Amino acid sequence: MSMKNLFDVAGKVAVVSGGSSGIGAMMARGLLENGAKVYITARKAERLEAAAQELSQYGECIAVQGDMSRVEGIEAFVEQVSKHESKIDILINNAGANWAAPLETFPEKGWDKVMDINIKSIFFVTQKFLPLLKAAGSVEAPARVINIASINGIRNSGMPTYAYTASKSGVVNLTEHLATDLASSGINVNAIAPGLFPSDMTKQIVENDGMTKAALGQIPRGRMGQPEDIAGTAIFLCSPASSWMTGQTIVLDGGMISTA
Fold first, then answer.
1. What is the largest CA-CA distance in the chain?
2. 48: nearest Cα among 26, 70, 31, 66
3. Closest CA to 144 of 71, 242, 227, 78
4. Are 96 and 18 in contact (CB under 8 A)?
5. pLDDT tens digits for range 170-195
6. Would you please indicate which residues are annotated as catalytic (active-site) residues?
7. pTM of the entire predicted model
8. Which residues are CB-contacts of 213 (< 8 A; sequence separation ≥ 6)?
9. DSSP codes of every residue in 5-68
């Protein structure tokens, strides 16, 4: 293979869960601008359709509403995609949720909501897409699964987001386990652990000048993540450049946890 095509994803078919906003939309745009066909899904149909319309200026983006917190919802989503595609080259498990509450009063409903979206869905979305991923991948040119973890699954964030911490730590270890099991099937499984990016989940920080300043003070690079940062990392993990990488979690945080 020519080395000038190492980062080529043109003609690939990708699925991005939680693709209607935040880093999901950023990764979807990056793939679209580089020639991939992208399916995005989210629970809120109106917002999803608006996002797909916006992203369609960059390439072929298709919205399929789905509830990734329930296996029934995942199966219905996979069934819809399967009506149009016989293979999926790229699966990005990005759908996520958070819940903050004091340790003494952290509610079961908050715990279950976060766990269902952040870790259970990754396993079952990957499981249900296996036939389409196996159809696309080979040992020489593997299909790709990218799971979105978080630096808060690697170190203590100092915030009362206990289920989020546990779920994102689980993503790191599940990624390694799935990668080991799926390598011989022609599927690479890796994860990205983002730091501070502008999104619905971080808007409380991003929209507060004092909190933003404090957060940026902990980041050696002195800024929050930009769309190109997460899109570039995702494209690397989807391209021939990373064909021998599997089971890894790439920390993408401007150096934040390296200072801890």
1. 58
2. 66
3. 242
4. yes
5. 999 999 999 999 999 999 999 999 99
6. 164
7. 0.95
8. none
9. GTT--TT-EEEEETTTSHHHHHHHHHHHHTT-EEEEE-S-HHHHHHHHHHHTTSS-EEE----T
